[in-house]
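Q: Convert this sequence to structure tokens.
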Amino acid sequence: MAAEPLASQRLDRFLWFTRLTRTRGLAQALCEQGHIRIDGRRIERAHAPVRPGNVVSLMVHGQVRVLRVEHLPSRRGPAPEARQCYTDLAAEPQDSANDLQQAPRD
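A:
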């Protein structure tokens, strides 16, 4: 029997399951310090619900990450599986960056 997809998930669990933080305790601390936004709203509680389609903004490893939640993970799996749970909206496409460097100058 197949499991039903989750409708929502705690923010701290989402951050930990998707390997955006090393520990769930660190995810909880980021939430409680107000360093995370969901759809532009500042979040100060680890149990805030995350749903597919939400845009999550956070500072991780010295850089701002803007992510759209694609689906909710059911476990903390390997990194490639975790990356499929979100789309990085702040990532610059490699092709456009290379095009700018190779553009002829007048």
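The longest strand covers residues 63-69.
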